[in-house]
Design a protein that fits this description.
By secondary structure, the protein is an alpha+beta fold. The protein has 16 helices and 18 strands.
């Protein structure tokens, strides 16, 4: 438990309205989307850099763990106060400081919601592409901490590809800047790329400078239904090789389509075993040409049906089946174990087949969907945490899945991060020596293990 003098010091340093230890606050910030709970000792709400500096200096003086937190919508437990201590919530640092239309740059505080930044950029004819599924609630700071991706990353890349510079505070309250406001910069070690995706374990981010690009004039969205995922995979390869240049390549398996259809109360074609969602964007001439090429590719394949959405309203309607998967499946069981494995694109069909066989063998419901363009498969084990046998089987299945993924030269996580939920599986992807190097980096930044302790390792 934190001593009373710590709370008094924090109140004196940043103000009473930003420091809380009431039970309702502690409970509110004790969990995230993993539904795992760790109760903190104190909640603080910094409103500026001075607050961050003072909080960290006090925490460092008393050797108290600090867990940075955005919206708390992560699936790996990265925002959980694993070792109690202080949770630093960034929802009050939510200002878009500047959108520079001449230099294609946005300066934001870490609590800015991703969707709000995208909307403000688009009003000025600019585009911030990273679009995690949680974009309407997740924050830019959280996206940077997890190096979030999303459907568009096949064409546009992940968060790291848009971070130019970070202003951060080290565990003792010292401020640093990493990166710069220009795209080309090879001076010194690339500490910016080290901090992006470090899950709040190396530094506390206070300002983010992002690269923007020109907003595409048009988008066209397609949904194509197949009798098998392997048929969909073959079709995707043809699309890529036909110079259609899609910005989005998403897939849904039968179980995810069925769950989302029921949730939305729409009809379901029983012959569908896979759906592919494809988006193309660009100027009017490019989109027209790519749309025509796509329709030509369709003629060579046996498909169940397809839809084309050209207006924004039509596209929103077509996206609903994909975006409603998570809420749809959340009601299917008391607990959803949400993994985000990655395999080479060509290995997606056999990986899905392998997971489906495990599901049948262990009598578990596993729902699959994800990003066909980059091999990222969202693997959802639907289980009852009060059923010991089911939890035992899910642990076996997860180990089998991660071993298989690494055997195919993949990764245990593509965008959710390691946090606490995947740290026991790091041994499958990294050698003991490699993990020790990670720990040495952590010790350089945080020798006393006070920043978001208990994560990754």
């Amino acid at each position: 438990m934190i001593k009373k003098e710590v709370k008094k010091s924090l109140i004196k340093a940043i103000g009473k309205s930003k420091v809380f230890d009431e039970k309702e606050y502690l409970i509110t910030y004790s969990y995230d989307a993993t539904r795992v709970e760790y109760l903190p000792d104190l909640i603080v709400f910094p409103e500026n850099e001075r607050d961050i500096e003072r909080i960290l200096k006090i925490a460092y003086k008393y050797k108290i763990p600090v867990t940075p937190r955005g919206a708390g919508v992560g699936y790996s437990g990265g925002a959980l106060p694993y070792n109690r201590g202080i949770v630093m919530v960034f929802t009050k640092m939510n200002r878009i400081l500047n959108i520079d239309t001449k230099n294609f740059i946005a300066e934001v505080e870490p609590g800015v919601v991703t969707y709000e930044l995208q909307n403000e950029c688009e009003k000025k004819g600019l585009f911030y592409p990273p679009d995690p599924a949680s974009l309407k609630t997740s924050t830019i700071g959280g996206n940077v901490s997890e190096n979030s991706g999303g459907p568009r990353c096949f064409k546009y890349g992940v968060t790291l590809n848009y971070v130019l510079e970070l202003e951060c505070f080290l565990v003792n309250g010292d401020k640093i800047k990493v990166g710069s406001n220009v795209i080309k910069d090879v001076a010194g070690y690339n500490l910016k790329s080290l901090i992006v995706g470090s899950e709040g374990t190396l530094a506390v981010i206070s300002k983010i400078i992002l690269r923007l690009i020109t907003l595409p004039e048009l988008r066209v969205l397609f949904r194509v239904d197949f009798k098998s995922l392997s048929a969909g995979a073959e079709f995707i390869n043809k699309v890529i090789n036909s110079k259609i240049y899609p910005s989005v390549l998403e897939f849904m398996d039968r179980s995810s389509i069925l769950a989302s259809s029921k949730y939305m109360e729409v009809s379901f074609d029983n012959d569908i075993n896979a759906s592919i969602v494809i988006e193309v964007d660009g100027n009017e001439i490019e989109v027209k040409e790519r749309k025509n090429r796509f329709i030509e590719v369709l003629k060579d394949y046996e498909i169940l049906n397809y839809e084309i959405a050209e207006t924004e309203e039509e596209q929103e309607e077509l996206w609903k089946i994909r975006r409603n998967i998570s809420p749809a499946i959340s009601g299917l069981s008391p607990k959803k174990i949400n993994e985000d494995i990655v395999v080479p694109v060509s290995k997606i069909p056999e990986t899905v087949e392998f997971i489906n066989k495990l599901a049948k063998e262990f009598n578990l419901l596993i729902i699959l969907f994800g990003h066909f363009g980059d091999g990222n498969i969202h693997t959802n084990l639907m289980v009852d945490p009060d059923n010991p046998e089911e939890m035992r089987k899910s642990e076996i299945v997860l180990n089998e899945i991660f071993r298989y993924v690494i055997s195919k030269k993949g990764s245990i996580t593509g965008e959710h991060g390691v946090g606490i939920s995947k740290k026991s599986f790091m041994k499958y992807q990294f050698s003991n020596r490699e993990i020790e190097l990670f720990k040495q980096v952590k010790r350089v930044f945080d020798p006393e293990n006070l920043l978001n302790p208990g994560k990754i390792f």
